[in-house]
User: Which sequence fits this backbone?
């Protein structure tokens, strides 16, 4: 006798009506999107923070997100974990598009375990990182997690190790961008530090290895989370982060802008964009933007704005090492990286922080096929005991190493003064720039005329009946002989001295000519740069 079919109430999932199975699936996925507790979402919003799916919605083009493993749950037991098994396990992973190009993303969900990383959580991140590297597409992490999930012990720590290994393997192969949108403590802080750029939001983002409680217990120092590792601390003091914003919307909008300037991977060129700013546009404003007097202050940003397409650029780390400006922009529709001394801050002198800031930017541009334009107005390296004792030699050498190692098209332009070793380091002809240009106001020399005259003619000045007059005469003599604007050009160290009004056209012509540049590097596993 044949048994009757099971009722809907007792049927196994395989025998239930299709519409019931689909309804159940939708309910489970909705629970995963909603989070384990509706009140947790309210608390997240009350802190001025968005949920993972809301953040991903702002980052990616509309309706392009495909989620990976939304139903994954941990299998850990002990400490009550067996009774808390939210779908997704505290992280949302997947891919979509930004300006029509594929981008991979993972976003911590603070509503589940405070976004803390456990074994299953880490495995989801490992998978999406592997997919991004295999597909040759950028990876964006939206960080909002409290570190390792303590209840899972060493398995959680091993999960971080897998992330760090993948960050390192992807370095220089695909762009990696970290967006800090909540706490990022302990081991969680090291993954962002291994990526190319870090974005933070005031009031909600913090990064530190040990929190305020540990600091107080060990050192006795009392400090708030924001003062220890907040957005302004890391963008202005430590140099750990690159961009800071007042809210998540503006932050994620600039992540999209940054991605629009970058190639998908190191095998591609950055995407070109339509340009309605004529490549041969005259830059007459530059005739008065830079004072002829090498001691007078001006803002190099006015020069950059006049040269680049429609005055639009994205400055990297504007609040840290302000005596050096690094920016991504476009010239004639093509992406370009700009490195420039900033006379408005410490006279544009090269110091430890400025050297390290520029070195890493040069290495990034070289890794991702972004041509470099270097604007030079530098009085030298910053003298001082602190600079010497803190390693200006090895740290300044980082910038020298970065330029010497770079194979992308390189154009340098001396606007005004370029003295001593700092001139050499700022992508001079002697270290491999492809095209070296200068304005008629350039002063390229070992040092300023005053200092040089004091050394060369010291005895003559001291023996003179009128040392002041003799010093002035010798300064003029040195400037006339060795610091006139055509001295370097006469010796082939400058390719051309150009009218400042022709700057945009001259730079774009040079970069267009260099577009097909190819440089063979020595066969080696890797170099050993200064540390």
Assistant:
């Amino acid at each position: 006798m044949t048994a009757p079919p099971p009722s809907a109430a007792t049927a196994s999932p395989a025998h239930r009506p299709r519409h019931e199975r689909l309804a159940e699936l939708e309910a489970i996925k909705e629970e995963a999107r909603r989070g384990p507790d509706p009140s947790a979402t309210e608390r997240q919003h009350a802190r001025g923070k968005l949920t993972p799916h809301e953040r991903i919605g702002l980052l990616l083009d509309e309706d392009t997100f495909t989620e990976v493993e939304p139903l994954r749950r941990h299998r850990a037991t002990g400490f009550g974990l067996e009774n808390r098994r939210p779908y997704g396990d505290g992280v949302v992973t997947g891919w979509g598009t930004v300006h029509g190009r594929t981008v991979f993303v993972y976003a911590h969900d603070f509503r589940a375990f405070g976004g803390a990383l456990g074994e299953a959580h880490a495995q989801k991140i490992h998978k999406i990182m592997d997919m991004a590297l295999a597909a040759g597409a950028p990876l964006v992490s939206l960080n909002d997690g409290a570190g390792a999930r303590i209840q899972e012990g060493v398995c959680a720590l091993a999960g971080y190790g897998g992330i760090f290994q993948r960050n390192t393997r992807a370095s220089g192969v695909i762009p990696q961008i970290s967006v800090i949108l909540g706490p990022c403590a302990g081991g969680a802080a090291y993954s962002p530090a291994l990526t190319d750029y870090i974005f933070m939001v005031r009031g909600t983002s913090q990064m530190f290895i040990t929190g305020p409680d540990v600091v107080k217990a060990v050192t006795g120092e009392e400090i708030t989370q924001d003062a220890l590792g907040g957005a302004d601390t890391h963008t202005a003091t430590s140099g750990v982060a690159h961009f800071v914003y007042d809210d998540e919307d503006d932050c994620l909008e600039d992540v999209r802008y940054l991605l629009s300037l970058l190639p998908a991977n190191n095998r591609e060129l950055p995407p070109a964009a339509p340009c309605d700013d004529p490549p041969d546009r005259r830059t007459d404003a530059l005739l008065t933007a830079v004072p002829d007097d090498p001691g007078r202050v001006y803002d190099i940003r006015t020069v950059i704005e006049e040269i680049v397409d429609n005055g639009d650029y994205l400055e990297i780390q504007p609040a840290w090492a302000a005596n050096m400006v690094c920016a991504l922009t476009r010239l004639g529709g093509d992406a370009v990286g700009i490195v420039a001394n900033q006379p408005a801050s410490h006279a544009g002198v090269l110091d430890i922080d400025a050297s390290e800031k520029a070195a890493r930017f040069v290495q990034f541009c070289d890794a991702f096929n972004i041509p470099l334009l270097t604007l030079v107005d530098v009085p030298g390296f910053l003298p001082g005991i602190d600079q010497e004792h803190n390693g200006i030699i090895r740290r300044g050498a980082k910038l020298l190493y970065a330029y010497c190692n770079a194979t992308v098209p390189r154009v340098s332009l001396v606007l005004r003064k370029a003295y001593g070793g700092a001139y050499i380091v700022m992508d001079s002809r002697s270290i491999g720039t492809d095209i070296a240009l200068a304005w008629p106001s350039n002063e390229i020399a070992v040092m300023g005329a005053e200092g040089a005259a004091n050394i060369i003619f010291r005895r003559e000045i001291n023996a003179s009946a009128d040392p002041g007059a003799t010093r002035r005469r010798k300064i003029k003599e040195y400037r006339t002989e060795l610091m006139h604007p055509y001295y370097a050009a006469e010796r082939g160290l400058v390719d051309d001295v150009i009218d400042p009004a022709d700057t945009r056209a001259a730079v774009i012509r040079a970069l267009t000519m260099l577009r097909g540049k190819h440089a063979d590097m020595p066969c080696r596993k890797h170099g050993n740069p200064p540390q």
